[in-house]
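Practice problem 4.
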């Protein structure tokens, strides 16, 4: 049985997934007088390119080449590169087509908040809701019947067979790591949004390709974790360190320097 504590934890996960991105968005828009449509563009781009288009391609590839999932190296390279290609291409096209008239540097962070914030909502809130649904099925004694239905339909059930034990053991302390992970992920998305923004603004296509590579490098440990090669602790440490280093470097050498250059140019009327 899934107890009350677990249900509270699921609720807190949903709340964090909704509140944290919303507070960040409101604070940024109010303090920088930015337009909400820039944030919305980031969110919609993630939805279209990461959740829809990338998922369609995954379905086709795994159907045609099912052996990829059984090869650790192939799965890591494929998964990491696909995430980088789809999301960074989405960013590039959003700046090039939708936000082409917005050349102020704040647009890059606005877009990044939308992109990373929507992913946080999707992962934290959607996971919390999903847990609620499964917990209800488990407590109603209908989980074995659900497994039988999925097996009869030819679907793989091994990923969810241990859910009753996992959800029953889920507590308040278990939501800290997912929330912290999303904080670092949003930071990383803002960094790459800045990088691709300047790729378009300055006409430097190599920055776009660099963003694809950086994104792939970030997702590589997650792919290895899914294959059981490394543990969750190593995965999260890699995510945190890589996100922080990437953000600091890109912020200092692109975003901050752009402001300093702008302030250094003064027009004197004679």
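Answer key:
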């Amino acid at each position: 049985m899934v107890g009350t504590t677990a249900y509270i934890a699921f609720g807190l996960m949903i709340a964090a997934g909704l509140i944290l991105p919303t507070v960040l968005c409101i604070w940024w828009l109010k303090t920088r007088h930015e337009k909400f449509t820039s944030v919305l563009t980031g969110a919609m781009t993630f939805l279209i390119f990461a959740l829809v288009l990338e998922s369609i391609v995954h379905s086709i590839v795994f159907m045609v080449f099912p052996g990829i999932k059984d090869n650790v190296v192939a799965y890591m390279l494929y998964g990491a590169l696909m995430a980088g290609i789809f999301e960074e291409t989405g960013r590039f096209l959003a700046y090039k087509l939708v936000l082409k008239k917005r050349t102020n540097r704040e647009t890059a962070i606005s877009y990044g908040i939308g992109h990373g914030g929507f992913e946080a909502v999707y992962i934290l809130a959607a996971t919390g809701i999903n847990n609620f649904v499964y917990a209800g099925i488990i407590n109603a004694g209908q989980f074995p019947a659900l497994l039988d239905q999925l097996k009869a339909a030819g679907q793989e059930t091994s990923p969810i067979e241990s859910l009753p034990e996992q959800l029953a053991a889920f507590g308040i302390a278990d939501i800290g790591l997912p929330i912290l992970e999303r904080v670092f992920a949003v930071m990383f998305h803002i960094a790459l949004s800045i990088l691709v923004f300047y790729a378009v603004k300055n006409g430097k296509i190599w920055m776009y390709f660099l963003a694809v590579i950086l994104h792939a490098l970030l997702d590589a440990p997650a792919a290895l974790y899914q294959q059981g090669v490394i543990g969750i602790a190593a995965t999260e440490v890699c995510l945190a360190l890589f996100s922080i280093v990437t953000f600091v470097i890109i912020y200092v050498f692109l975003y901050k320097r752009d402001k300093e250059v702008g302030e250094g140019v003064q027009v004197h009327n004679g």
